[in-house]
Amino acid sequence: MAETSIYEIHDPRFRQLIVTSAGLEELYSGCRWAEGPVWFNDGNQLLWSDIPNQRMLRWTPEGGVSVFRQPSNFTNGHTRDRQGRLISCEHGGRRVTRTEIDGSITVLADRFEGAPLNSPNDVVVKSDGTIWFTDPTYGIMSNYEGYQAEPEQATRNVYRLDPATGELSALVKDFTQPNGLAFSPDEKILYVADSAASHDHSLPRHIRAFDVVDGSKLANSRVFCHIDNGIPDGIRTDVNGNLWSSAGDGVHCFDPTGKLIGKIRVPQTVANLTFGGPRRNRLFIAATRSIYSVYVTATGAQTP
Prior knowledge:
Blueprint: E1 2-4, E2 7-9, E3 25-29, E4 34-40, E5 45-50, E6 55-60, E7 64-69, E8 75-80, E9 86-90, E10 95-99, E11 105-109, E12 111-112, E13 115-116, E14 123-125, E15 131-134, E16 156-162, E17 167-175, E18 178-183, E19 189-194, E20 206-213, E21 217-226, E22 235-237, E23 243-247, E24 250-254, E25 260-265, E26 272-276, E27 282-287, E28 290-295
Antiparallel strand pairs: 1-2, 2-25, 3-28, 4-5, 5-6, 6-7, 8-9, 9-10, 10-11, 12-13, 14-15, 15-16, 16-17, 18-19, 19-20, 20-21, 22-23, 23-24, 24-25, 26-27, 27-28
Protein name: SMP-30/gluconolactonase/LRE family protein
């Protein structure tokens, strides 16, 4: 293994995905736990959650950082739907919401089979408009990132929501603590992180892969990769099918077979990440108290 600057090169292919001269830039410091970054290319802005501080923040290259929403209802993960609207997971409301163009908030899901959800954590939108999200118990374990409560769901699930019909389906029920999720570029595979080792080191710290069947079901569960430092939290894919995961020592990059090919070392524990910038070649990293960015040669797969 060779090392160059902030990079750990585990496989020569990783050199083709990074700019070795590019440094890690700290864009903001002052969060308690930074999470859920989402890029708005049409607004040239990054939004993210500072969960314990009950706020969502916004960064623009021209204007720096400002408060986007406070209180935020302990919002965690975000994405955008195919109309460009903000989709968010709220610990406080134990729900998934959509922020409309006029700023009003629509509740998309807050119950399953008559009982409240645990605390929706992360979310992605498929090209057909369906919304897929995870529902661990992190937001109800204490009053730090939500409101402490006993779970009313028997399991911690991965859900698929059809916003056109309101139908909510639990696709996977055997996770310990499902967390970040991402589709492969062709949407034939869904990757889901299990971060249960955050509270018990004997529990999973891996990312699982599922085949997407008929666009609405998951099959052929397998462990895609393990994280060797910390836990997998937020994950994203690039257009070549590589998977980029948060970890204790930075960002880990895996090829489509699950082989670790490189790392970007970050000074703080990384919770989540997203590709952004006009060409989707700037990696934005939410790491504990700070938001960092670094330019890469990889292009993020997620749109819009």
